[in-house]
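Cross-posting from the modeling subforum.

Setting up a comparison between two proteins and wanted a second pair of eyes on the formatting. Protein 1 (sequence, then structure tokens):
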Amino acid sequence: MSEFFPLNELEVGLVAAQKKAISVEEFIRKLILSDLVLPSAGEVKEDGSGFQPIFFDKVGTKMLAAFTDKTRALQLEHIAEYYLAINALEVLRRIP
């Protein structure tokens, strides 16, 4: 596994939380103020229409593909050349 280099403040917070330099609560505060990048199989319009999320299976559970930076989402560009940038709290609010 290659070394992880943070690309934004959310990722800096993630590394700090993993090292226990900040609390989980502090990381969650950073998360909900940040945007996530959700890959899309369809072209996403400015109003969010057209968004076709990418899901993957993790031990029988459907998981939404979400990234902390647009460049990290490039690993899925073979199936999702588009993306939706959305506030993380808004993503959490939409989970049933």
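Protein 2 (same layout):
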Amino acid sequence: MPACLRFVLPFAAALIVAGVSELPPPAHAAAAAPRMTRRLPPADTGRTTMDGVYTLAQATSGRNVFAANCQSCHTPAQHTGPPFRHKWFGRTLGDLFAYIRREMPKNEPGSMSDDDYVRALAYLLRMNGMPTGSVPLAADIAVLHRIRLDSVPAVSSTPGSR
């Protein structure tokens, strides 16, 4: 028996006994496979979209961005209500921002400026009844990942801080 088989056969038998039915793909296959992003739970910063994380001016401007770049494929109603809440609530604004920046517009994904993407995001928040605030939403993925999409205001851990 060749030397390599003397190692491989006992190793394969041990995997079968341990209940492992598949070996991981070779390294070159992983590089060729589409990149899958693992959804990690967001850091709990206590900030949610109910805290007024965008301005009315951003949402108004976002309506124009939506009309120019999104409305030919999507109606505003497609991004509101139970389907939107089911898919996005509990996730971070960073998740949603990254998705729309990576996937939209359908005919030319990633072609808009980050400022336009954040304006469109503000418009989506407005359509979903999220309150406005006095500070514009930043087109900064790290900041956006610290804000959770939610339908209830965050509860402060310090009495009287809201």
